Amino acid sequence: MKGTLSKLAAAVLIYLASFSLAAQSLYEIKFVDKQKNPYKGFLVFFNEGNAYMRIAYTSNNVYNVVNVDYTLRNGTNHQGTQYSMLTGYNPVYITDNKAGLRYNPDYFIWFYDEHTKKWGTPYTTDDSLLNVNNYILVDSYTKLDPQNINDTYLREFFGSEESQYFSLRKMCGLTSDSDDGTVARGTGRNNTTTTDNKNKYNSSSTLHLVLIANTLDPSIGTGCATDERNLRNEFNEVADALGVSFREHIVDGTAFSKENVQAELNSLQPSENDIVLFIYRGHGFRYKDQKEDWPRMDLRTSSYAAINDNSSMNLAEVYGILKSKGARLNIILGDCCNSEVDVSSVTTSNYLTFQVDNNSDISKLKKLFLNSNGVILSSAAQKGEVSWNTPEGGLYSMSFLQALREEISYLSSDPCNWNDIISKTINLARNKSTATYCSNCTLQDGIQYVSVVGD
C-alpha cells in the first residue's frame, strides 16, 4: 500500500495577485495514489517560500496526520511549457507513529496553457525524478472559506493543544474573543472619494490613499492597473475594518502627469491623527550623475516627450512634502526602476499565484495603523536596478500586500511592526526576481527608511 510509507494530499488553489495577491490561505485537496488509496490534505499558504500542509490518511486501520513544509518555484520544461511546482520537505508525523512509517512528500505541479492563458489542474507525484508517467491528476482541490470551517474539521488535522489550532480557531471565528474580526472583501472607490465607515475604534482618523499609476503605458500599463485595483480594494477594506474614514487621491489614465500629482499632494490636508499612504506604480529612473539614492518617478504620458525635472519627480521630494503635512503616519512607496532611462523592466514569466484571504487580526491592524507614529519610505530597486513588472502586477507591489497580510494574520507569530513588513516586502520581491521564479529577471533589491514608534 503506497500510502503506508509515502503519499501526500495537499490543498492548493491559484491565487491572483495580489496578489492579491497575502496573509494566509486555506485549501483542501483530495486524490488517490496508484493503489486507489484516498488522501485528504490541508494547506496553509503564506507566500512562495513559506507554506505547510497537514495530510490525513488511513493505513492498516490507523489514522495518520503528517505535517510537511512547502515551497513554490517556477520553471520551463524541455518542451518549453512553463510550470509551477510545490516541493515538500521536513515531514513530521503529528499523530503517533508507532509503526515507524516514513513519509516522502509529493510534488504538486501546474502547467501553463498558452492557448487558454490559464494554469491547468495540478498533478501530483512522489517521484523525485519527476517522470511524467508517474503523474496523477488530483481528484479535487478547493479553496476554503474560514467562516465555513468548524472545529470538527480542524480536529481532522490538528491536535487540541497545538498553537496552530488555536490560531486557526481565531481565524475561523470559533473563539469568543470580542476583539477578533475579519476584513471583508470590498469593491474599491472612484477617484478622490471619501468613505465614512462605522466608528468601531477611532472616529477621528482618516486613511488617505494617494495612488499614482501609469495605467495606459503600453509596456507596463496592464500590471499597473492590476496593482491599482488591488491596492484600492485592500486599503478601503483596512479602513472599513478599523472604522476610520477612507479618502482616495488617484492619478491614472489620461490624468497621469506631474502637474496632477503635485495638485493632489498640494490639496492633501491631513489632520494630525491621519494616515497617508502614497504609492507610485510606473516607470522610474535616475540621472547618470544623480547622487540621491531614491528613484525619480517618470510622469510622462508619452515616451516621446522629454524626460527632465519638468516631467519627473524624485520619491524623496514626496517624502519631504508629506512629512511637512503633519499626519501621524506617512508611508511612501515607489514600485519603479532605479536605473538609467530606457531600461526594460517587463518579464513575460507567468506566475502561478495563490489567492490569499485577508482574514486579519484586528488588534494587529490597530497596532499598525492607529497606534503608530512616524514615516516610512521605500522603493522597489536600489540604484542601477530595475523593478520587474508582470501583467499580474509589479513584484514589489504584490510582495507588499503579501507581507502586510502575512504580518496581520492570525497565524503569524512574529511581532507585527512596519519595519518587518517593509523588510519582508523587499525580501519577497527579491525572491520573485531570482531564477527560481523568473528566468529572464535580474535581481531587484529594494531600499527602505523606517522611522516609526508605537507599533
Write the topology of this structure.
Elements: E1 25-32, E2 38-47, E3 50-59, E4 62-76, E5 82-93, E6 107-113, E7 118-119, E8 123-125, E9 136-137, E10 140-143, H1 151-154, H2 163-171, E11 194-195, E12 206-213, H3 221-242, E13 245-251, H4 258-267, E14 275-281, E15 284-285, E16 296-298, E17 312-314, H5 315-323, E18 329-335, H6 362-369, E19 373-379, E20 389-390, E21 393-394, H7 395-407, H8 418-432, E22 447-453
Parallel strand pairs: 12-13, 12-14, 14-18, 18-19
Antiparallel strand pairs: 1-2, 1-10, 2-3, 3-4, 4-5, 5-6, 6-7, 6-8, 8-9, 11-13, 15-16, 16-17, 19-22, 20-21
Helix pairs in contact: 7-8
Description:
This protein has 455 residues and is of the alpha+beta class. The chain is built from eight helices and 22 strands. The protein has helices at residues 151-154, 163-171, 221-242, 258-267, 315-323, 362-369, 395-407, 418-432, and strands spanning 25-32, 38-47, 50-59, 62-76, 82-93, 107-113, 118-119, 123-125, 136-137, 140-143, 194-195, 206-213, 245-251, 275-281, 284-285, 296-298, 312-314, 329-335, 373-379, 389-390, 393-394, 447-453. A hairpin with a 2-residue loop joins strand 2 (38-47) and strand 3 (50-59). The protein is globular. Mean pLDDT is 84; it is low at 1-23 and 177-190.
